[in-house]
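ok trying again, last paste got cut off:
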Amino acid sequence: MSSLRPRRSCLYMPGANAKALDKARTLPADTLIFDLEDAVAPEAKADARDAIVATMAAGGYGKREIVIRANALSTPWGHDDVKAAAIAAPDGVLFPKIDSAADIEAADKALRDAGAPPSTAIWVMIETPKSILNIGEIARAAERTRLTTFVMGTNDLAKDMRAAQTPGREAFLAALSLTVIAGRAYGLTLIDGVYNDIPNTEGFEAICRQGLALGFDGKTLIHPSQIETCNAVFAPPPEEVAWARGVIAAFADPANAGKGVLKVDGKMTELLHLEQAKRVVAVAEAIEAMGAS
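nice, full thing came through this time. structure:
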């Protein structure tokens, strides 16, 4: 595990807003999601599609990951979005309204048919009750498709469940946890859903910390003002990085060769902690590299 791409902050940018797409080149978000779905009115979708292709051709986004959120393949715009994405060659295409593994297969076929490069991954929105009921089979589709990432769509899930979005997200904890369990079982990246109350910075930080505690790798955002807090919460703290380096050094010490359990900083440390430590250091180094770009 030499490196991991950080996905602490995944900022939605409306594809129809040229000024926003340009501003995104200066924002410290790890991932930019150029949106052709919810943020774009039907009459503006074709122009937004062209704008995204043009802005990606112009470049200037540095090491930021670029993902295009397409419209669902069942809509009049979905397949044209995928064809445009094949030209733009983003890091990923985010597909909404996924209900089953068959939807993943359809997304995979659409990308192949459009000629998208193999490096363009499938991201999917987990935002319907059916997606939660089928979450295991959806995650398993990663074994045979380009699927790499789950993104929680908590707003749509709340609508379909007729559930209240309380500060503690009590109605969604089961769905969030099931998604994390399924995603980890098949090696997926997991991105938490958006937080709507932009001025409530304390509430936003609390929900970021909840997402981290649940096992998410990062969070989708709807406003640039949320990036700094999100990046800070989802980055490993300095003391954790120091611990991780100590664990790696201890197991690398020839004096400890063959040992499965060591005492590091007075605490019993097993080989499973070594893998955890390697990941922490890899993430920290990737974040540092992002900051230097």
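cool. The chain has twelve helices and ten strands. The chain has two domains: 9-234, 238-292.
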